[in-house]
């Protein structure tokens, strides 16, 4: 397992990160702990969670994922783990957090409450990487960055990151931090996969020029790149199968991932993987890691048998002909996720 620096910070992490958003919904605690153990034993030292997990967001189980991770964390040497979690962010846009009755703007009140609640559920006295889950473009970045800096100075948080942020928002936050002389975002956690390469349009340049690391989520495009939705399949228990049944916001999200263009590109990527003699999941994970602006790729599983093809991507470098074939699909089926 290779290790890379998070932004300009002192923290190095494994280039594969285990995400936990299904722990407590699709995966029970015993299964979750086995997945975490196997990941750690394979060399993964970086684990990502959030106050709003598990998914789909629901008040009946919000916070359960951090509790599951916290109980597992007590079985390990805390210094051996790089732990990331997130404060929800505003609920007045398309996403509504089940935390604090949806009152989750990025102000001093909410950030302070959120971090204390996360520390309690995680059973630790510090968080290695604390991230804003959704940007709050209606709240001044000066206020957000000042209170986050206070958490760093208090020793409750080591470094800061953002998620689902825009180029404008990332630059505004960096500008605010520089002007105030406070801690800045070292990482950005956005969607990035062979089916969704929009990050390369603008944000990749921001990361390179400003020394911010991408820690991409959904490198398998929410499971779509495994091919399990191709041919009209709707696997029982799969996330987007459930989301399509739920309707509303969840169904809209599922249709962004599972649509005609996304399934067409997936079919071609599967052919490339087969030609190269590897599992499509292995190829998708390796591809995500193979970018200079990426520090660690966040993967997620809800069953132990989903781990091996992901772990097979450790130390893998895709040959030039495979990268070229993947890029050819991107040029011919542009923006399959919109």
Number of strands: 10
Number of helices: 12
Strand order of the largest sheet: 9-8-7-6-5-4-3-10
> What's the alpha carbon Rg, rounded to whole Å?
19 Å
Q: Biggest sheet, open or closed, and with what strands and sense?
A: 8 strands, parallel
State the domain count: 1
CATH architecture level-2 label: Alpha-Beta Barrel
Give me the CATH fold name: TIM Barrel
Report the sheet-strand fraction.
5-15%
CATH C-level: Alpha Beta
- Which residues form runs of ≥5 with pLDDT under 50? none
Helical/strand content category: alpha/beta
Shape: globular
Can you give the helix content as a percent range? 40-55%
* N→C terminal distance: 33 Å
Whole-number mean pLDDT: 96
| SSE series | EEEHEHEHEHEHEHEHHHHEHH
CATH superfamily: NADP-dependent oxidoreductase domain
Descriptive key words:
alpha/beta, 8-stranded parallel sheet, two-stranded antiparallel ribbon, 10 strands, globular
Describe it for me?
The protein is α/β, with parallel strands linked by helices and 338 residues long. The chain has a single domain (3-332), classed as TIM Barrel, CATH 3.20.20. Helix content is 40%, strand content 12%. The protein is built from twelve helices and ten strands. The protein has helices spanning 29-41, 64-73, 108-122, 141-153, 167-180, 203-210, 239-246, 248-257, 260-276, 280-289, 307-311, 320-332; strands at residues 3-5, 12-14, 16-19, 46-48, 82-87, 127-132, 157-163, 185-189, 213-214, 297-299. An eight-stranded parallel sheet has the order 9-8-7-6-5-4-3-10. Helix 4 crosses helix 5, helix 7 packs across helix 8 and helix 9 (260-276) runs antiparallel to helix 12 (320-332). The longest helix has 17 residues, at 260-276. It starts with a strand and ends in a 6-residue tail after the last helix.
């Amino acid at each position: 397992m290779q290790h890379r620096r998070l932004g300009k910070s002192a923290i190095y992490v494994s280039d594969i990160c285990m995400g936990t958003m299904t722990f407590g919904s699709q995966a029970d605690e015993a299964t979750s702990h086995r997945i975490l153990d196997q990941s750690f034993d394979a060399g993964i030292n970086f684990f990502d969670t959030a106050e709003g997990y598990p998914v789909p967001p629901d008040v009946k189980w919000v916070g359960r994922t951090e509790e599951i991770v916290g109980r597992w964390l007590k079985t390990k040497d805390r210094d051996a783990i790089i732990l990331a979690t997130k404060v929800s962010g505003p609920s007045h846009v398309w996403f509504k957090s089940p935390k604090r009755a949806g009152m989750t703007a990025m102000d001093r009140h909410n950030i302070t409450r959120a971090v204390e609640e996360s520390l309690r559920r995680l059973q630790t006295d510090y968080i290695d990487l604390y991230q804003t889950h959704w940007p709050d473009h209606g709240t001044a970045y000066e206020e957000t960055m000042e209170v986050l800096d206070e958490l760093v100075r208090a020793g409750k948080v080591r470094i800061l990151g953002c998620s689902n942020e825009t180029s404008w928002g990332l630059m505004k936050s960096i500008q605010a931090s520089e002007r105030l002389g406070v801690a800045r975002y070292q990482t950005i956690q956005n969607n990035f996969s062979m089916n969704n390469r929009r990050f390369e349009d603008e944000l990749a340049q921001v990361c390179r020029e400003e020394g911010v690391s991408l820690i991409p989520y959904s490198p398998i495009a929410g499971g779509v790149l495994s091919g399990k939705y191709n041919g009209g399949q709707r696997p029982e228990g799969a996330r987007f199968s459930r989301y399509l049944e739920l309707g509303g916001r969840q169904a809209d999200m599922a249709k962004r991932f599972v649509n005609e263009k996304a399934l067409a590109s997936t079919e071609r990527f599967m052919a490339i993987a087969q030609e190269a003699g590897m599992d499509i999941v292995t190829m998708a994970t390796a591809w995500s890691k193979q970018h200079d602006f990426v520090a660690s790729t966040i993967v997620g599983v809800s069953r132990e048998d989903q781990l091996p093809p992901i772990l097979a991507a450790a130390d893998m470098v895709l040959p030039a002909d495979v990268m070229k074939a993947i890029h050819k699909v991107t040029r011919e089926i542009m923006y399959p996720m919109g």
